[in-house]
Design goal:
Helix content is 69%, strand content 10%. By secondary structure, the protein is mainly α. The chain has a single domain, classed as Winged helix-like DNA-binding domain superfamily/Winged helix DNA-binding domain (Arc Repressor Mutant, subunit A). The longest helix has 23 residues. It starts with a helix and ends with a helix.
Length: 125
């Protein structure tokens, strides 16, 4: 999947992992670092350099929350929002390349997420 996305994402200047971060932000505009890590199943040590790079590109901002300075809020910028349509076009091309319809892909995604959850639970035991 990553290999299929790579040339398409290269055109808009994102890696697949950066694209995954932006997908969350395009969905919610602003999230805490903790929620972002949970959604992407990445720890803060992996996320921090990734977010720093995206912030340097002007695609997001990171700010400590006023009400709780221990919490970092990650927010998409107008420049980050401007990439959404180009990324959606890349996603359409990948969907077409799979040969599956959106419903079949959604079922497969849900099954893989359930499998991941079961494996995480088993490894934590």
């Amino acid at each position: 999947m990553t290999g299929c996305y790579r040339p398409l994402l290269d055109e808009i200047g994102l890696t697949y992992t950066q694209y995954a971060v932006m997908l969350v932000l395009w969905e919610q505009d602003s999230v805490t670092l903790g929620l972002l890590g949970h959604r992407l199943q990445l720890d803060s040590g992996t996320l921090s350099p990734l977010l720093k790079r995206l912030e340097g590109l002007g695609l997001l901002t990171r700010r400590r929350r006023v009400e709780d300075e221990r919490t970092v809020q990650v927010t998409v910028t107008p420049a980050g929002l401007a990439l959404r349509d180009r990324a959606a076009a890349a996603q359409q091309q990948v969907v077409a390349a799979t040969g599956f319809d959106r419903e079949a892909l959604a079922e497969m995604r849900d099954a893989l997420q359930a499998l991941t959850g079961r494996l995480r639970t088993a490894s934590a035991s």
